[in-house]
């Protein structure tokens, strides 16, 4: 079959690789001049089910809104009009809905499956990219660990490995942690990993191209039409016919689907990262570290250290360096002197599409020929390979290896 994939971030590229490996003729459309240039460009790199952060745990909405309203370096919004009241209401309802545990389990299950698929792809094609084992959630206070307890309970029920550590045990595993900062304890996720998302995307694109997939960059697709749902229209070019179209365009998916009877309750949420060269290897982290208070991640990627986090809604007009001061501070709290933060620091702002229940949409759109693999939020790298295989199996009329219950468009 001839299949179009719209979007060449990590989700679109892995989807293209899975589809072409099924024997399909695949064409990928990307409006940017290259792949993985938006939300996939400089991610935190965390993969695996351990630190999948759900936006729909009880009281999450109240905590985030309070921090946004009354000031917090980790959360901010710029203009009330940028937060639709309907979206806020649906999100708040999702946090208190009776099946919120099932949603968290679905996200953990997808992340676990995705990690396994990524390993298989890497072994099959011989991918070599920056990869390290293990992640640690560091809790400054006891209340931060208690807030994560619900997710730990679900991990226990589903056989996901973790271990609670006291400060001494934590420092044995991560000796570079600053002696100046006191904290309550931590949680080790030994099977989670930190990997370079963009490196993997480039390798996957190269492999998909070798197998016959065509990547057309610099081509922006016009909104899809109900009358010709299996056609792709590029400005000033004739329409092209396909057997199926898979929408993997992240935050741009909503505008692509605006003429179709498809409800996509997404909100643009921005995050930041900074990447700096390692100054002293002995002072750099071994594991991926997440500060539970600020939800800021610190990870070693090759010869660089990447710090990422901050949840921002709306148009922030401050210079990028002012927006990432909390990232610098958190890095200095835990690993002072580990990175060369005064020279050639790459500051990046990425935009992700956050759905009201924090889960992606995988499956048929309800419109003939159109499939959805979008809405991954800040978990796009952690869930990309698994969602790509699942959508390719569905398009190819194969049985999926994982349970996709609760991930379809019908929930909206």
What does this structure look like?
The chain has 12 helices and 18 strands. It has 412 residues and is of the alpha/beta class. The protein has one domain (2-411): 3-Layer(bba) Sandwich (FAD/NAD(P)-binding domain). The strands form 3 sheets. Strands 3, 4, 5, 6, 7, 12, 13, 14, 15 and 16 form a 10-stranded mixed beta sheet that branches. It has a 6-stranded mixed beta sheet with strand order 8-2-1-11-18-17, with helices on one face. Strands 9-10 form a two-stranded antiparallel sheet. The relative contact order is 0.22.
CATH superfamily (homologous) name? FAD/NAD(P)-binding domain
Helical coverage, percent range: 25-40%
Structural class: alpha/beta
* CA-CA gap between termini: 29 Å
CATH class: Alpha Beta
Number of DSSP-assigned strands:
18
- Radius of gyration, Cα only, in angstroms? 21 Å
- Beta-strand level of the residues, as a percent range? 25-35%
CATH topology: FAD/NAD(P)-binding domain
- Outline: globular
| Low-confidence runs of at least 5 consecutive residues | none
Kindly report the average pLDDT value: 91
H/E series, N to C? EHEEHEHHEHHEHEHEEEEHEEEEHHEEEH
Q: Indicate the CATH architecture.
A: 3-Layer(bba) Sandwich
Number of helices: 12
Largest sheet: 10 strands, mixed
């Amino acid at each position: 079959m001839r299949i179009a994939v719209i979007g060449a971030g990590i989700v679109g590229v892995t989807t293209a690789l899975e589809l072409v490996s099924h024997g399909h003729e695949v064409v990928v459309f990307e409006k940017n001049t290259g792949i993985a240039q938006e939300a996939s460009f400089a991610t935190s790199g965390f993969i695996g089910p351990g630190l999948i952060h759900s936006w729909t745990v009880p009281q999450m909405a109240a905590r985030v809104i309070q921090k946004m309203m009354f000031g917090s370096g980790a959360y901010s919004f710029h203009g009330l009009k940028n937060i639709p009241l309907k979206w806020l209401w649906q999100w708040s309802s999702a946090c208190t809905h009776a099946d919120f545990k099932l949603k968290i389990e679905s996200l953990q299950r997808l992340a676990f499956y995705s990690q396994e698929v990524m390993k298989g792809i890497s072994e099959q094609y011989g991918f070599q990219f920056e990869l390290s084992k293990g992640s640690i959630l560091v809790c400054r206070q006891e209340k931060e660990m208690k807030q994560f307890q619900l997710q730990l309970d679900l991990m226990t029920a589903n056989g996901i490995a973790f271990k609670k550590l006291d400060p001494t045990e934590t420092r044995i595993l991560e000796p570079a942690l600053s002696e100046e900062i006191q904290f309550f304890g931590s949680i080790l996720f030994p099977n989670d990993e930190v990997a370079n998302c963009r490196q993997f995307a480039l390798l996957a694109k190269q492999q998909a191209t070798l197998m016959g997939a065509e990547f057309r960059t610099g081509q922006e697709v016009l909104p899809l039409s109900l009358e010709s749902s299996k056609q792709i229209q590029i400005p000033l070019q004739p329409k092209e016919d396909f057997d199926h179209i898979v929408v993997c365009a992240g935050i741009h998916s909503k505008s692509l689907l605006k003429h179709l009877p498809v409800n996509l309750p997404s909100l643009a949420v921005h995050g930041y990262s900074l990447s700096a060269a390692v100054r002293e290897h002995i002072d750099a982290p071994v594991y991926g570290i997440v500060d539970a208070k600020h939800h800021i991640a610190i990870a070693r990627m090759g010869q660089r250290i990447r710090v990422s986090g901050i949840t921002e809604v709306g148009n922030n007009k401050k210079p990028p360096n002012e927006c990432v001061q909390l990232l610098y501070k958190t890095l200095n709290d835990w690993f002072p002197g580990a990175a060369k933060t005064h020279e050639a620091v790459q500051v990046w702002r990425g935009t992700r599409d956050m759905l009201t229940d924090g889960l992606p949409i995988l499956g048929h759109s309800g419109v003939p020929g159109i499939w959805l693999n979008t809405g991954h939020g800040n978990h796009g790298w952690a869930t990309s390979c698994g969602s790509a295989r699942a959508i390719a199996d569905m398009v190819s009329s194969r049985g999926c290896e994982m349970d996709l219950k609760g991930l379809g468009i019908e929930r909206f």
